[in-house]
C-alpha cells in the first residue's frame, strides 16, 4: 500500500531528490517549501504518475505555520523526513542581526523538527507504524569544524540529540527513528555558502580534498533515506548514520585547509576556504 510521506524542504537539493525517490516508489509524497510557489508546483507536475505529489508552503519553527500545515495535509503521516534547514548564507538574506540569526538557526533547524515530530508521532503510535528520519549534518551532528558557524553546528547537534532521545522513548514502539548526517553534498545550499565563492582552481582543490575526491550527489542521500524507511531497517532504530563518505571520521580534510590559511598550490587567500567564518563565539 502507498505510504503518506511528508518531506520538509522538498523543493531542492536532498529534499527534492528524496521526494522524487519516494514518488518513484509509488508513495504519496507531500513536501514543503519556504518560497517560490511556481517552482514547487512545477515539481508536482514533473513527478506525477506514481503516487500523489503535493506541495505545501511552510515556515518551519513558526507555530501558526505548523498548525496550518497539519490542518492542510490530506491524511495521516506514515513517514516524516525532517529535511528543511537553514544555512549560514541563506539565513543572512532574511535575518540581519547576528543575535537574531543565532535564535533563528536553533528555531528552524532543531525546534521546528521537534514540533513536527510532536504533531505526527501520536498518530503513528496509534496506527501502529511509522518512520521518522531527521536530516542532520556531519558538521555538528558528528564532528566539529573550526571556523564554521558555531550556532549552525549547535543546531545540528541538537537534532541528533533529539533523534537519540526520541528513539529511547520509542524503543518498545512500532515507530522507528533515525538520523542521517550528510557530508559535502552538491546542493544549492552548499553552492551558495561555499562553492560559488571559490575560484575554479580552489573548487577543484576542495573537491579533491574530500573523501573519494568528489562531492556527494543528492540522489545518494535520498536512496539511503528511502532504504531507512523500508521494513528491514528496524535494527537501526536510534542510529545516527554517518553519510559523509568518510568526512565524519576524518574532518581534518577540511579543517586543515582552513587552519593553514592558504590552499595548496593555488595561493588563494584563506577567506576562500569553505564556510569560512571568524573564529570565536
UniProtKB/TrEMBL annotation:
It comes from Parafrankia irregularis. Pfam families: adh_short. CDD domains: SDR_c (cd05233). InterPro entries: NAD(P)-bd_dom_sf (IPR036291), SDR (IPR050259), SDR_fam (IPR002347). Belongs to the short-chain dehydrogenases/reductases (SDR) family. Coiled coil: none annotated. This is NAD(P)-dependent dehydrogenase, short-chain alcohol dehydrogenase family. The lineage of its organism: Bacteria, Bacillati, Actinomycetota, Actinomycetes, Frankiales.
Amino acid at each position: 500500500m502507498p505510504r503518506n510521506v511528508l518531506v520538509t524542504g522538498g523543493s531542492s537539493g536532498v529534499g527534492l531528490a528524496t521526494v522524487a525517490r519516494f514518488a518513484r516508489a509509488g508513495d504519496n509524497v507531500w513536501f514543503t517549501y519556504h518560497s517560490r510557489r511556481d517552482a514547487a508546483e512545477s515539481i508536482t507536475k514533473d513527478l506525477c504518475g506514481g503516487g500523489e505529489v503535493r506541495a505545501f508552503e511552510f515556515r518551519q519553527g513558526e507555530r501558526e505555520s505548523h498548525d496550518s500545515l497539519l490542518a492542510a495535509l490530506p491524511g495521516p503521516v506514515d513517514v516524516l523526513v525532517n529535511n528543511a534547514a537553514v544555512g549560514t548564507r541563506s539565513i543572512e538574506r532574511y535575518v540581519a542581526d547576528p543575535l537574531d540569526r543565532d535564535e533563528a538557526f536553533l528555531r528552524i533547524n532543531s525546534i521546528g523538527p521537534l514540533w513536527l515530530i510532536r504533531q505526527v508521532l501520536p498518530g503513528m503510535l496509534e496506527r501502529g507504524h511509522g518512520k521518522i528520519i531527521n536530516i542532520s549534518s556531519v558538521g555538528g551532528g558528528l564532528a566539529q569544524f573550526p571556523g564554521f558557524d558555531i550556532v549552525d553546528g549547535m543546531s545540528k547537534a541538537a537534532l541528533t540529540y533529539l533523534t537519540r532521545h526520541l528513539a529511547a522513548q520509542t524503543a518498545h514502539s512500532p515507530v522507528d527513528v533515525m538520523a542521517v548526517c550528510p557530508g559535502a553534498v552538491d546542493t544549492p545550499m552548499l553552492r551558495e555558502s561555499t562553492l560559488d565563492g571559490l575560484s575554479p582552481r580552489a573548487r577543484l582543490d576542495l573537491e579533491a580534498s574530500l573523501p573519494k575526491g568528489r562531492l556527494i550527489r543528492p540522489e545518494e542521500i535520498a536512496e539511503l533515506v528511502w532504504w531507512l524507511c523500508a521494513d528491514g531497517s528496524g535494527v537501526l532504530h536510534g542510529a545516527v548514520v554517518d553519510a559523509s563518505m568518510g568526512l565524519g571520521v576524518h574532518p581534518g580534510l577540511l579543517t586543515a585547509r582552513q587552519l593553514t590559511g592558504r590552499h595548496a598550490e593555488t595561493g588563494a587567500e584563506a577567506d576562500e576556504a569553505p564556510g569560512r567564518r571568524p573564529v570565536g563565539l
